[in-house]
Amino acid sequence: xxxxxxxxxxxxxxxxxxxxxxxxxxxxxxxxxxxxxxxxxxxxxxxxxxxxxxxxxxxxxxxxxxxxxxxxxxxxxxxxxxxxxxxxxxxxxxxxxxxxxxxxxxxxxxxxxxxxxxxx
Length: 120
Known about the structure:
Blueprint: H1 3-14, H2 23-27, E1 50-53, H3 61-66, E2 83-87, E3 90-100, E4 103-111, H4 115-119
Antiparallel strand pairs: 1-2, 2-3, 3-4
């Protein structure tokens, strides 16, 4: 057995699990943990700001003021590229623009995992 294998075996032997008096205690929900969809009802009515960003452009104010109706602003994205979806100014997803019954919509294609979620 190599030194690495022996060290891994030694480490796993030192690991101990918490002692529970019964299986029921080990499986019971912990306090302050959401265990049911009904528990989420408290946040259903919390307003959030959702923004779908098609692209960005930078220009001087005088260029902006010279623009008239029908002017075209060139964005930094191409047709067909994913758009960014922000919730409360935090990037949460990427998607594609779709048309549904003469309305614009977004199909989510990727959920963006934040570093905070990965560390939590």
